[in-house]
Design goal:
mainly alpha; Four Helix Bundle (Hemerythrin (Met), subunit A); globular
Length: 262
């Protein structure tokens, strides 16, 4: 005899370990997943309509088709310069950073035409524009200033970790801060200049080396990383978060136009 359906609608699961769980005959209409790790998972008998998936897809098959290469090819077609974000030599990293600087210049020019208050507004529950810039400062602090340059506590007070990162002594997380765009850009320019100095001085030998573990609390943990991996993390963060920012700016412009009656 079928068991009666349990009503858990509206529940929130935060920092819960559901590894090995099984979901059968479950209604997930309207659910939101964020910061989810699904490895060695199997989802069968799905009906998916109006579903948006954002993330990294490796060995993900849909009806027997590995969608990862298809998604990668389509993203590179839409954004031809995206392929430059996976460089293998120093010149490639310098070219990639040239692209990042140029694209962000255009995005910032757009943002400056908005009502400054809108730059603190979240779109769809995501970071505001200024929070996105603060997070990129955190990424540079972590992977370049701490991991590559060896500063055990490089974080600025406005640096913003990802939401799911556990609270860590010495690492700031002030979500209530509302700095002006100019304040955030001053920090941003300094951190981008740090990345510029690193890539401009990059050699084949250093690119192929590993970092020296940095002791003390913080992120990344006190282990060694390939230098190339650290630099690729920053390129990926810069590329993806600029796309998110552009997406959200479109919505903020629409909101401003509605408010102004245009």
């Amino acid at each position: 005899m079928p068991q009666p359906r349990k009503d858990l609608s509206g529940s929130r699961f935060d920092r819960v370990d559901l590894s090995g769980s099984e979901f059968r005959n479950v209604d997930m209409s309207g659910v939101r997943f964020r910061g989810i790790l699904m490895r060695d998972a199997s989802l069968r008998g799905l009906e998916m309509q109006n579903v948006e998936l954002n993330g990294e897809f490796v060995n993900v098959t849909v009806n027997g088709v590995d969608i990862g290469p298809l998604v990668e090819a389509e993203l590179n077609r839409r954004h031809p310069e995206r392929a430059k974000m996976r460089p293998t030599d120093p010149d490639g990293f310098r070219e990639a950073w040239d692209v990042v600087e140029r694209l962000w210049d255009g995005t910032l020019q757009r943002a400056r035409t908005l009502d400054p208050l809108l730059l603190h507004e979240s779109v769809g529950g995501e970071w505001s524009f200024t929070e996105t810039l603060r997070h990129l400062a955190f990424a540079t602090d972590s992977w370049i200033r701490r991991c590559i340059l060896g500063d055990p506590a490089p974080w600025h007070e406005l640096s913003l970790p990802w939401d799911e990162m556990p609270d860590t002594p010495g690492v700031p997380r002030d979500r209530a801060a509302r700095p002006s765009l100019d304040e955030v850009l001053e920090l941003r320019r300094d951190r981008m200049a740090t990345m510029r100095r690193v890539v401009d001085g990059l050699t084949d030998e250093f690119l192929c080396s590993d970092t020296t573990p940095v002791e003390g609390p913080g992120w990344p943990p006190a282990v060694s990383f390939p230098v190339r991996e650290c630099l690729l993390v920053i390129l990926n963060e810069e590329w993806e978060h600029r796309l998110y920012a552009e997406r959200d700016l479109n919505e903020l412009f629409r909101k401003e136009n509605v408010r102004n009656g245009s």
